[in-house]
Amino acid sequence: MRRISIFGATGSIGEQTIDLMRHCGGAQAFHTVALTGGRNVARLAEQARELRAEIAVTAYEDCLPALRAALAGSGIPAAAGEAALLEAADRPADWIMSAIVGAAGLAPGFRALRHGTTLALANKESLVTAGPLLLAEAARHGARILPVDSEHSAIFQALVGEDMAAVERIVLTASGGALRDWPLERLARATVAEALAHPNWSMGQRITIDSASMFNKALEVIETREYFGVAPEQVEVIVHPESIIHSMVGYRDGAIMAHLGVADMRHAIGYALNWPARSALPVARLDFTTLGSLTFRPADETRYPALRLAREVMAVRGLAGAAFNAAKEIALDHFIGGGIGFADMAGIVEETLDFLSGGGGLGNAPLSLDDVREMDRIARAKAAACAAGLTARRAG
Ligand code: NDP
After folding, report:
1. Which of 112, 116, 134, 280 lies most in the core, judged by the most C-beta atoms within 10 Å?
2. Do 119 and 70 have their domain in common?
3. Quick one: pLDDT at residue 198?
4. What confidence score (pLDDT) does residue 8 get?
């Protein structure tokens, strides 16, 4: 029986992973090792009971009593906190889903690699903040990282049997998010609710807003550069509102391999779960006769400054990805909290990067996760100060 752990089980990706496991036989077909979540302990306990998990872990110590209570009588132990997440990552598993949102997802996934496991990586922040460290750790321990982001899964699939040396370009498609048709001058006034109305994909709250601002695509551009080892200029972004083509690889003979399908994350999750085989998945099939047309438009860097910033991050590399992601997370918190406007998010990230590039060690290659954590801490502090300044100016 395959041993499986899911980090971020209560989130959008976690739930869809469990849905696929259920489809493939659930507790009869898989041995569930660890399930982890954050504040939604009631759901975590339900999942742990259903899959008869070895252990359920919440990231937050103050949620432990509620998790224990929800698991009462099940015989499933509960644990909490960062150390418990790492302990869960140490438990032998054949396949681990890394689907915690944000920089918090890095450490457990990194830890799991030392056991030579297969890490299905949804947490894009891991590669953005610590790509070279993560890949080196996987290589050192014979572990495998499989992409789960739909674009990277698409690219991975379009590369099967091909020679990386023959790759000319990688084209990431972007839906453009909820605000893609808004006039530029209205964008700055977009509310959280408006940014959350994603036309194609059903995802967690944070990534949905990041889709509207294109910070999500910016993270994916950096992720592509790190995971596939291509040069920054080989990574292109194109807006494709229908989200049917999930990404493409262009080869030196001019051929383009595109991955098409309905917008359903269970395809990419299922591919990683069954890899290298392809198994039947409960996803809708494309009907070309009703599809209509597939359209494309350029990804305008004036409209989406996050994409321009991603290019700057790739040029610096080192710890710039960690700073970029941390500043983005803080800016997003402040947007969700109502203190700043939609367009202010990019301004905060840019100001943070500018500040840190002046002798802040941005270009230093990280030697360990501690270096990444330290840059994350510094960038958060700077971004929070920028956001507080903006909030105060808006209030005044
Ligand atoms: P969600 O917000 O839906 O879920 C996040 C999960 O992480 C939940 O289980 C949540 O727990 C847990 N969590 C939140 N904060 C912490 C923390 N500080 N420490 C530990 N656990 C925490 O996110 P998504 O499922 O949408 O996304 C997960 C990752 O996958 C992200 O990196 C995202 O960019 C990536 N991804 C997502 C896609 C999607 O379609 N959703 C597509 C491609 C990539 P709780 O809810 O219990 O508080």
Report:
1. 112
2. yes
3. 84
4. 98
